[in-house]
Structures are given as C-alpha cells and as structure tokens.
Amino acid sequence: MPTETPSTTPPDRESRAGDLVRERLREQRDLALSERDAALRRLAEIEASAGYRLLALFWKLMRRLAPPDSWRGRLYRRLRGARPAASAPESFERGGNDDSVANDPWPELYAVEEQATATHLPAVAILSTVWLLESEGQRPTQLALELARRGLPVAFCYWRWWPHEWAVQDRIDAGIVQIPIDLVLAHPERLVRAFSGHRQRIAIVAFPHPDLFALVAALHAAGWIVVYDVLDDWEEFHRVGQAVWYDEPFERHLLTGADAVFAVNDVLAERVRELGRDAVAVVGNGFRPGLEEVFSPRPLARGEVTAGYFGYLAGAWFDWALLAAAARQRPDWRFYLIGYGGSPAEITLPENVVLLGKQPQHALAAYAANWDVALVPFKPERLAAGADPIKTYEYLAMGLPVVVTGVHPPPGSEAFVTRTEGVDGFLAAIALAARHQGADAKAARQRFAAGCTWAHRADAMLDAIDRGEQRVAEKRALMRVDR
After folding, report:
1. What is d(CA 196, CA 109) in angstroms, rounded to the nearest whole number?
2. Cβ distance 372 to 434 under 8 Å?
3. What's the average model confidence in pLDDT over 47-63?
4. Residue 31 has pLDDT above 70, yes or no
5. ∠ at Cα 44 (40, 50), nearest 5°?
C-alpha cells in the first residue's frame, strides 16, 4: 500500500521557505530605510545650502527680537495677520531626540566579543559611509556579511545624518554589531580596546573623512592592522558636491600611514600612487550569489532590442543625454530603467524609455530576464572612471552582455563587457551585443561572474594581509604580534 503523502512541508523545504520569507522582509525593511536615508540626505543638502542658512539666520534673529510671547511678537503676528504659532517640541529644538541610552550599542559590541570564541580568526571593524543594508548591496556591507559568514566578528561602524537614527540591531547572532560612527568618535577607546583576545584585529577604513584622524591613530597604536579600502575618487565626489567633507591632505596621510591599501580598479590605484602611496593592490567589486535567480516572472513589453539598467540614477554620473539621444534614434527599441531618480528638467525622455522606479533586489533578475543587453551609461568623466560598478558583475551573473560608457570593464571581462563612447558607438555596441544570445555565450558570462563573488574578494584581501604584504608584516614586527 503506498505511503500517504504527508500534509506538512518537509523540514528542509520548510526551513528554506522560512529563510526566504525572512530575507524578503529584511529586504523590504532595508528598502524603506534606504528611502528614508535618501530623503535625509536630500534634506541635509538643502540645509547646507546658502539660502537655507540665510533663512535660518533670519528666523533666529526674529526669535530674539520678537519672541512669540512678547509684545513685539504679538505685534508682528497682528501685522502679518497670523495666528499664534504652536511651540516646537523640545526634541525638535535640540535637533532630534537622542535616545542613545535606549539604543546604546556598546553592550552589543561586548556581546559579539564574548560570543567570538574562535580567537585565532581576525576581528574586523569597518568604517563605512553606508548602512548595513543588503538591498543597497554596497561593498562595505557585502564584506561585512561575508566575513561574518566565516565566523569573524565584525563591528560595522556606519555614518548617520541625525543622532536619533539607529540601525536595526538584528545581526548580533551572526556576529555583527552596528555602531554609529559619531559614537565611535565620541568613545574611540571602546572600539580600540575591543577584541583584544584575538591574535589579529583589522580595521577597514572605507572613506577618508578627516574626523577619523584620532581614531585611526589610536587603532594604529593599539596594533590594529589599518586598511584603507579605496572605493571611489573622493576628490571628484567633492568637486561635484557629493563629499563636502573631503580633505586631500588627510587622504594622503591615511594612504601613507595605512598598513595595506586596496583599490577597486586600476584608475584609482594610479591615483593612489599619485598621492604618494606606491604599494597598492587592486581588488575589484563583486556580486552576491543568488541575486541572479528569478523567483517570480516580471514580464515586460519588448522592443526590437530591449536594454535595461538598474541602480542609482544620479545626475552626477548617469548620462541621461546619451540615453535620451539613443532612444530617439531607435524608436523601435525599448530602454528600461530601475532605480531612484528621474531625468533632469532639461531632458525630455522619449516614450520608449520606461522608468520602473526602485525595485527589491530579489526582483531585479526577473526584470532583467526580459532584456537583451544590460547597460551602464555613465558620463565619460573622471568620476565614472574611478568606479567599478557592482551592477556589471550582477548583469554578467544573470547571463547578460553588458555595454558601458564612462567606466572600464573589469579585468578579464572584455569579451563580455563592451566599452564605447558617443551615441553612434553606444547604439552599435548594443546592437552587436544583442546578437550574442546563445546558451554558450550566456554560460561564459556566468562562469566569469562566478569567479567574482564577494567570497573571492574577501579571500584576496584576507590572503594579502595573512601573507604580510605591503606594510602588514612590518606592523606585526613592530607590535610583536604573531599572525
């Protein structure tokens, strides 16, 4: 008699289904947090403008000259015909409710330190401009997750805009504690003394903010291996108003003093040398396996050729003019754009350019499955030249041919990634790439991507440190620290 089929889901499948649900919920939360962060970033840019500062100064002066409850204030409101304004809450006057006691991250740091029993493994601190959001997929986040998967405890120190912003502390069990950088700068000794039982401690500095000067010096003095991970051309970001804090003398100081320096591409490595650091290793970006899987189809209307892009649609580097001109010349083609932002006011997009907004990471492969070619249409300027777009690796993992402008193909990918210039070259490269749709071509692209995972990138960095390359061996000798 045949065995009756169980009505419940097998344990392994049930566990996998539960993991997927938790992953989707976390991704939705991360998406909401990234949207909030983008809004706060825009608000901070407004508040940094001269017009806002002038207006704030005017109202500050008015509050002094005509307080709301004074006869001057009442006279001013009468002249303006306004009703009495409600008093601002105390927390607003202070610039936000700093609930640091309720969100104190230091006990969590000690908890991660105590549960890290494999002291033969390094402990890592990452100083990052971004939050640990998987939906954003940034390099500091992916390295933190990869290192934690290997059992390394990680202190992820993130930049925040306001003192009442807090990351969700949901990675303690995985060995990751998230700490605002401003709290680290206020109490540097707490981070510097952490993980003292580990034979090796590594601090990865992902941006050269001058406020990190004293912290970096303290990490050096305590025997931490200080790594500067050069992700972008920060001077160029400063020029276009994206990194107002940048200070070249400090970046030179950080470069010349670091025990190891990594850069994401050859262009940035050459800039590192120009700033006075001869020893630098190139370790490119990567991708997270699983992102290429299609979980639920997302059909899209197709054109004679269908091309697409996902990522941040920043006017500082996204070439809207190029894309609009290309779409106008090929009205039978379709171009899909996924991400934040819209075209600048001076550029009108043709109807065959479709904006899909920002989508969850797990849905990107389903949208991209409709494309013949994936695009990275960046402006041919210095800012783009210093980038190593993570999306390039993700496109290849999805099996798509890639056409780029402004940026360079990852080393070894030249057969799969075409770099071009100008509208005519852009269109010709897309047309040629669209013809390379065979199973063998797709498999070759995916094989290349398989060697570019974040695990490979973490291996490259950890192996270089383990071998004592650059100045790491010198630091160990000076501090009398074994590997």
Report:
1. 13
2. yes
3. 56
4. no
5. 155
**Widest Cα–Cα separation across the chain:** 95
Q: Are 326 and 423 in contact (CB under 8 A)?
A: yes
Residues near 259 by Cβ (< 8 Å), separated by ≥ 6?
225, 226, 227, 470, 471, 472, 474, 475
Amino acid at 74: R
Strand partners, 402: 374, 417
Phi and psi dihedrals of 304, rounded to 5?
-55, -40
How far apart are the C-alpha atoms of 110 and 104, rounded to whole Å?
Answer: 11
d(CA 46, CA 159): 18
Residue type, 215: L
pTM: 0.81
- What pLDDT digit, counting tens, does each position of 181-237 carry? 999 999 999 999 999 999 999 999 999 999 999 999 999 999 999 999 999 999 999
Cα dihedral 3/8/12/13 (nearest 10):
110
Exposed / middle / buried, residue 335 (Cβ in 10 Å: 0-12, 13-18, 19+): buried
Q: How far is CA 354 from CA 46, 314, 338, 349, in A?
A: 29, 16, 9, 9
Q: Where are the alpha helices (DSSP H) in 48-97?
A: 50-65, 71-80, 90-93
- What is the distance between the alpha carbons of residues 111 and 117, in angstroms, rounded to a whole number? 11
| Residue 269 CA neighbour count, 13 Å, CB half | 13
Question: What pLDDT, in 10s, does the model give residues 289-323?
Answer: 999 999 999 999 999 999 999 999 988 899 999 99
**Cross-sheet strand order for the sheet of 402-405:** 353-357, 334-338, 306-310, 373-377, 402-405, 417-419
What is residue 22's DSSP assignment?
Answer: H
